[in-house]
Amino acid sequence: MTVRSRFEPDRQLTARMVLTMFLLGLLYVGFVAALIVLLKSVVLIVVIAGGLLVAQFWFSDRIALYAMRGRLVGPEEEPVLHGIVDRLCASADMPKPRVAVSRMDLPNAFATGRNADHAVVCVTTGLQRRLETEELEGVLAHELSHVAHRDVAVITIASFLGVIAGLTVRFAFYSQLFGGGRRDQNTAVAFAAVMGVSAAVYALSFLLIRALSRYRELAADRAAALLTGKPSALAAALTKVDGEIARIPTRDLRTAQAFNAFFFTPALRPGSTAARLFSTHPPLERRLEALAQISAQLGDETP
């Protein structure tokens, strides 16, 4: 479901989100069925994973802000930032999210929250320092489109299956699921089966989520460009941020890599063609090409 706003509806994004959730749901049902056959304590695993999902979904905004050292700021403290968000929300006819700033030199931004009423848009001081007002406006429009299209919430829910798969592997090692530590032949077979099923489920869910994540970034670029009418400003922001991130030491980027799926641009770019299949974002060249096409369309429509 999409929040009512003037952001152009993206039916392909909605269809992809529905399809991804449907396929992950089928995968989840098959996974639980396999665990029921192999294990006796599957209920405990699902309950723990479900609790983590609820906590992650309900408190995602607080968790993200804490991890990224962000804090909420008011209009008095950040008048320029709030002014941009106010104008964009008025143009998009959508509720204004809370605004936060992260005191990090890494130039980036992200949106989080379970719905429009509990959303947060956060930018780093590194991004504010490096971008012009129009470029920052394009980045914030991109993040607001994530809120309007509800894809942040979908990505959060979709990660549930991977959490279960990961927990199952840990239970296999650290609990008494296999007869109090006895290592007979049946135990070894059950252990190998659980590990195999868990690894397969994690890999499939990982690929599905990554594919959706890459498309939602292109959809957000398009929605932001059409809302602001300035695709060239967003393209300039992408180019500038990508270049600036390349100058930051890799060890500093790795600390933020866990939030790649939520960032405006990834903290670390994939180094090979194969690695792009596992990337949370499409290549920079692909994003710039799409924005150039939008710019040409808007130019054609301009009298």
- The Rg value, from CA coordinates, equals 21 Å
Using DSSP, what is the number of strands? Answer: 4
The low-pLDDT segments are none
Oligomeric grouping of the chains: single chain
> In DSSP terms, counting alpha (H) and pi (I) runs of 4 or more, how many helices?
12
Q: Termini, distance in Å?
A: 35 Å
The helix-and-strand class reads mainly alpha
Secondary-structure element pattern, one letter each: HHHEHEEEHHHHHHHH
Search tags:
metallopeptidase activity; 64% helix; mainly alpha; 12 helices; 303 residues; protease; HtpX_protease; 4 strands; Protease HtpX homolog
Description:
The protein is mostly helical. It has one domain (11-301). It has 12 helices and 4 strands; from the N terminus they run H-H-H-E-H-E-E-E-H-H-H-H-H-H-H-H. It has helices spanning 11-38, 42-58, 60-67, 79-92, 125-130, 133-149, 151-158, 160-174, 185-228, 231-245, 250-254, 284-301, and strands at residues 70-72, 98-102, 109-112, 120-124. The protein has a 4-stranded mixed β-sheet, sandwiched between helices. A hairpin with a 7-residue loop joins strand 3 and strand 4 (120-124). Helix 1 runs antiparallel to helix 9 (185-228). The protein is elongated, with a radius of gyration of 21 Å. The two termini are 35 Å apart. Residues 76-293 form the Peptidase M48 domain. The active site is at 143. It comes from Streptomyces sanyensis.
